[in-house]
Design a protein that fits this description.
Elements: H1 3-16, H2 20-34, H3 47-63, H4 67-82, H5 88-106, H6 112-135
The structure holds protoporphyrin IX containing FE (HEM).
Length: 136
């Protein structure tokens, strides 16, 4: 990610932060719309899962300026996801759902440059997670 993309991810995330619960609900609704077969691997009650995802996203977005501080945590999350049997196609579903949720929650204020920056950000996080899972 370029420094400008880091700024774009952080400023667009700040804008949607007040609607974080809406963002995460839209995200999981979209994951299960695209890939209903994934519903059963998640808990029936998604409340706690939504909260954890908001915390992790906030942590990762805030840490983008200091990647060394967040990479070990993201790697550990990747290893944990290997235990959930997550495969690369599922990472694509989750990436598409995240972009959709950001777009819907931000509304027209979400720019093409922000979309591109989030695509780079998700690509980075999901690559670090998958590489760590493969190496573990
Ligand atoms: C960058 C991508 C991702 C991030 C940041 C992320 C984040 C998280 C977090 C923070 C948790 C909670 C971990 C805990 O309980 O300590 C979690 C759990 C989980 N994630 Fe992900 N995740 C990602 C990708 C995926 C993908 C692609 C799948 C596949 C469908 C997936 C499926 C799951 C499942 C099944 C759980 C466990 C739910 C449970 O039983 O509690 N995640 N994820």
């Amino acid at each position: 990610m370029t420094p400008v993309q880091v700024e774009l991810v952080q400023s667009s995330f700040d804008r949607v932060a007040p609607q974080a619960s809406q963002l995460v609900k839209t995200f999981y609704d979209e994951v299960f719309r695209i890939a209903p077969q994934l519903r059963h691997i998640f808990p029936a009650d998604m409340g706690e899962q939504r909260t954890k995802l908001i915390h992790t996203l906030t942590y990762a977005v805030n840490g983008l300026k200091f990647p060394h501080s967040i990479i070990p945590v993201v790697q550990a999350l990747g290893v944990q996801h290997r235990d959930y049997d997550v495969d690369p196609a599922q990472y694509e579903v989750v990436g598409a759902a995240l972009l959709h949720a950001l777009e819907v929650t931000s509304g027209p204020s979400f720019t093409a440059a922000e979309r591109e920056a989030w695509t780079a950000c998700y690509g980075l996080l999901s690559t670090v997670m998958q590489d760590a899972a493969a190496a573990a």
